[in-house]
Amino acid sequence: MRKPELLMPAGSLDVLKTAFRFGADAVYVGGDMFSLRAKAHNFSDDELKEAVEYAHSINKKIYVTVNITAHNNDLDGLKDYLAFLGMIKPDGFIISDPGVFELAKEYAPDVERHISTQANNVNYQTFKFWYNQGAKRIVSARELTLAEIKEIRQNIPDDCEIESFIHGAMCISYSGRCLLSNYLTGRDANLGECTHPCRWKYYISEETRPGEYFPIEENERGTYIFNSKDLCMIDHIPEIVDAGIDSLKIEGRMKTALYVATIARAYRNAIDTYFENPEEYKANVPTYLEEIAKCTNRMFTTGFYFGKPTAESMVYGESTYVKDFVYLGTLINVQTEHSLDISTKCELIQKNKFCVGDEIELLSPGSLDIKTCKVLKITDSDGNDMESCPHASQRIFVYLDIEAEPGDLLRRGPIM
Length: 416
Fold this sequence. Notes:
The chain contains ten helices and 19 strands. By secondary structure, the chain is an alpha/beta fold. The protein has two domains: 5-174 and 227-309, TIM Barrel (Alpha-Beta Barrel); 326-412, Elongation Factor Tu (Ef-tu), domain 3 (Beta Barrel). The protein has an eight-stranded parallel barrel, surrounded by five helices. Helix 1 packs parallel to helix 2 (45-57) and helix 3 crosses helix 4. The chain starts with a strand and ends with a strand. Residues 218-222 have low confidence and may be disordered.
């Protein structure tokens, strides 16, 4: 069996480092231009260079998305950008446009070229076509079943890699090629500016009765007819491995460090445990699902992997995420304290409010055991005591009654 790569998203250097710390084998990122997440933080050229150097220093991989549908006026800038990327040498490009594919070969010949899911890769002949053009990896369309992917694996060269999304938001349009945002708002999803109109509220209007609106289901909030549940395949690792997928991809370049850490840790544990002890993996599935559910989500579905989705794969009553756990911050520096029975003094940039006396959770790589701790003391950067930390992005010191390491994350569950 091939042990697949765990491929995580990152919208910033901090999130990239978190992804690697919590178990990612590889991370995919976007630059300031030419990727499909224009509203994400994205990476400057200097940050991309630092990210590549950091990944390679710890023997990890980094892929750069260059997956816009390019227009003529994009091409000159693309040439310069690809030449820069060719100089810093990420491990691969994720590309959907044949013209960009050719430019990447010319301006960055030493970098692998991967074919994005945006290219509608749904049969083994397409996979072989791209492989023969020089692609190292092809990302399967989300509309494929595992049986279809397994058939593709059996009909392509062994060194032609398959990458598949296994977790995260599902696009309502075929392989993500959507025109709805452009039509309604003038912002093109295929240039990275999607406004996500699939999450909006809709009613039906019959043409001979203008002004009369009919909800598709009875609900005072309207009906979200395009609003898919999120994909989650953590309880189907055996089937994924059997299909011959080489890289398991998590969606979410706009997600927080907490989301990336939680998902990476769970899938890392699931993959490793399955290869070491399938029965233990099976017994752990409820724990994996419980941990995954602590992240922001729209409930879960298996997408197309076991057949066409039904009405059960949609969220009709609301468009917002379920968000039970709150990200408090990532530990920057940690030192042991022995006064006042305090175990650990932790420096962090605070993300959300919490208070002295709160019971919170510490998230560390490895085991999925829950580490609960108590906030014994909070001070500002000058050492002044604080009862709470209400100001986002403030640098603070938190004293905890538990051992911790730099890079660990703090989160708070629902307030009862």
